[in-house]
Write a structure and sequence with these properties.
The chain is built from 4 helices and 4 strands, in the order αββββααα. It is mainly alpha-helical and about 140 residues long. The protein starts with a helix and ends in a 5-residue tail after the last helix.
């Protein structure tokens, strides 16, 4: 039985091979031409688009990117892009910058900070809080 980490590594390798196989010798134009059988079509009505300078493509393709935090090479699948742009209503000018483990770490840090701030808000104020807010300057 394989671990989750081994399985994820296999999945990443398979995605990279698929991208290489599909794009071998082809220059794909997402903005014109017929939609390939393996691509996922864009639902233009479901996209939130705020820029007049960027046109929306006809279909999504798997994109490779490098994680901003750890530097690992990742693949942002067409299915993930469709979810991000059409269901989550992400801005069409954005793209993936972090891998899943780094996103989890960042979200965990945010949750810890939020819990800490809520605990501080519930904490009893210091008896001399007014003194600390005024500072040492007397008016």
């Amino acid at each position: 039985m394989k671990s989750g980490k081994q399985r994820r590594t296999e999945i990443k390798q398979a995605r990279r091979k698929r991208i290489e196989k599909l794009n071998r010798g082809k220059i794909l134009d997402q903005f014109s031409g017929p939609i390939p059988d393996w691509a996922i079509a864009v639902d233009r009505a479901a996209i939130v688009h705020h820029s007049y300078y960027i046109d929306t493509p006809l279909y999504y393709l798997d994109r490779e990117f490098q994680c901003k935090d750890c530097g690992s090479d990742e693949v942002w699948t067409a299915k993930q892009q469709k979810w991000w742009y059409e269901i989550a209503k992400g801005d069409f000018e954005t793209s993936a910058i972090r891998c899943r483990p780094c996103r989890k770490k960042k979200n965990q840090a945010k949750a810890e900070q939020k819990a800490h701030m809520e605990a501080m808000a519930k904490k009893k104020p210091h008896p001399n809080e007014a003194f600390f807010k005024k500072g040492f300057i007397k008016e």
